[in-house]
Structure formats: C-alpha cells, structure tokens
Amino acid sequence: MARRRQLYEGKAKILFEGPEPGTLVQYFKDDATAGNGAKKGVITGKGVLNNRISEYLMMRLAEIGIPTHFVRRLNMREQLIREVEIIPLEVVIRNVAAGSIATRLGIEEGTRLPRSILEYYLKNDALNDPMVSEEHITAFGWAGTADLDDMVALSLRINDFLCGLFLGVGITLVDFKLEFGRLWENDEMRIILADEISPDNCRLWDSRTNEKMDKDRFRRDLGKVEEAYQEVAKRLGILPEAGVRDLKGPEAVQ
Ligand code: TMP
Q: Helix (H, G, I), strand (E, B), or coil: what is residue 211?
C-alpha cells in the first residue's frame, strides 16, 4: 500500500492527507513534551488512549450540537477528521486554579475560581505561546470579533457539558485547552472544534482525593502516568476491550 502523504508533525500528533478531499487522518503518538518541548518522553499507550478519549468526548459533544472536526475513528491510533483552517489560538477554560494561573496570580492551586475563566494564548512555539487579549487577536487579525463570539459561546457550552460528564465519573475538570478551525462550505464559514480533548490538554483530578489524572503527572514527575490515562478511559467506560494489553498492539500506519 502506498504511504500516505504526511502534511504536518506536531509534538503529539501527525496529520496525513485523508482519503477524500477536505479530510485528514490524525495519528496519535505516544510522545509527550512539556514546557514547550523542554522536557521530552514517551507515555506508552498514550496515543491509543487519547485517540479513544478524544473520539468519545467529541462524539458526546456532537450529540449536544457542538460542531467538531471528528468524523470517525479509523484504528487504534488514527481518526478521520475534517480539514479546517486552524485559528492560531489556544483557548484555555479554567474552573479551579492550577498551573500557570496559580503561579501568575499567586492563587493557591486547588482554589475554585469565582466563575469559569477563559484565556487566549497565541499558538507560537518560538514565542512560547504567549497569553494574548481580544484586542491583540482582533488588531493583528488572528480572528475577528464574530469568530471570538462563536469560540467563547462554544467553549462555555463545552465546559458546562464536560464538567458534568466528568463529575459523573468522579473527576473534576480543573481546566482544559481547546483549538478551533474555520470550515468553509459553499462560501459559508463555520467555526468548529478541532485538535483533541484528552488528558494531554485537560487537568483532571479525582473528585474525592484530588489526585492528578492527567499530563501534570508527566510534567511534574509524579509517576504512574500511563495508569492515570488508563484510569480516565476506564471511568469513561472506553478502555480498549482487551484492556491494557490492547495498547501495545501493532500499529496500522507508520
Ligand atoms: P496552564 O495552566 O499551563 O496555562 O495550562 C492550562 C491548561 O491548558 C492545562 O489543562 C494544560 C493545557 N495546555 C495545553 O494543552 N497546551 C499548552 O501548550 C498549554 C500551555 C496548556
């Protein structure tokens, strides 16, 4: 079989040309980075779990009317997605103080925020993804006011829904990062959810013990990283059928 054309390789995923125009194949790697690439490692089975977790969450979001790029899962590590023009922003939604907001504003980690707080960061590795304001975004043309209105409305709905979904399985959604893209259909443009939603880009704490079940275990050398990702999948009821053994199976594409 001919190798598919690779279009982009990121830190945790690879994008290949899709089978039809307007589609891409998103491949999930086990590679993990933190601190904008300063720390590198491998979390065995992460790609398989994130593929499943992101599939599950995007499908549940689609059921409540959130437009997403997800089409279908293809195999253990790949999913078919719609090709979009990625908006060069990371939208972070926070419910509980942790990570950079705790450091930046001197708030004790674990403090519930007075309300959900939304922040924008510019996707630019060379600049270390700086935080930006709506003023910067519209002045420099990274997105327009109407785009931002759509992104904020979608992000807040996603947050409400995911907070409830995770709480139902004993997990607090502390914060998470979203990316959006522009989808063009017959001269009409829509903003849709892109990228992935997984323990790589969410902070997920056990709601009883506050134990971390996300990439902070890797970032902060807390150990049991693989186990934490597996536990999230298990609680969501989507651990691959053969259990952990399934995670080390053959990879369909390289
Ligand atoms: P932060 O506290 O480091 O700003 O991160 C907030 C949330 O966003 C956290 O769940 C991790 C996620 N995130 C990413 O997914 N990618 C990034 O590049 C950064 C900085 C954060």
A: coil
Give the residue whose CA is nearest to atom 15 of ligand 1.
Answer: 201
Token readout for 55 is 């599939």
Q: Classify domain 3-84+225-243 at the CATH topology level.
A: Phosphorylase Kinase; domain 1 (3.30.200)
Burial class (CB in 10 A: 0-12, 13-18, 19+), 125: exposed
| CA geometry: angle 89, 90, 94, nearest 5 deg | 145
Q: Which atom of ligand 1 is nearest to the CA of 121?
A: 20
- Secondary structure of residue 133 in the 3-state scheme: coil
- For the chain, 254 residues long, the average pLDDT of each consecutive 10-residue run is 84 97 98 94 98 98 98 98 98 99 98 98 97 98 98 98 98 98 95 98 98 98 98 94 52 44
CA of 144 to the centre of ligand 1 (A): 23
Stretch(es) of the chain classified as CATH 3.30.470.20: 85-206
Report residue 243: phi and psi, to 5°.
75, -150
Mutate to test the pocket of ligand 1, among 50, 123, 175, 193 (most ligand atoms within 8 A of CB): 175
Backbone angles phi, psi at 23, to 5 degrees: -125, 160
- Residue 201 CB–ligand 1 contact under 6 Å: yes
**What's the predicted TM-score (pTM) here?**
0.94
Structure tokens at 35: 């601190």
C-beta 230 within 6 A of ligand 1: no
Angle in degrees, 0-180, between the axes of helices 225-235 and 46-63, rounded to the nearest 10: 30
* CATH topology (fold) of 85-206: D-amino Acid Aminotransferase; Chain A, domain 1 (3.30.470)
Residue spans in the chain of domains classed CATH 3.30.200.20: 3-84+225-243
Rounded-to-10 torsion of CA 26, 29, 33, 36:
-20
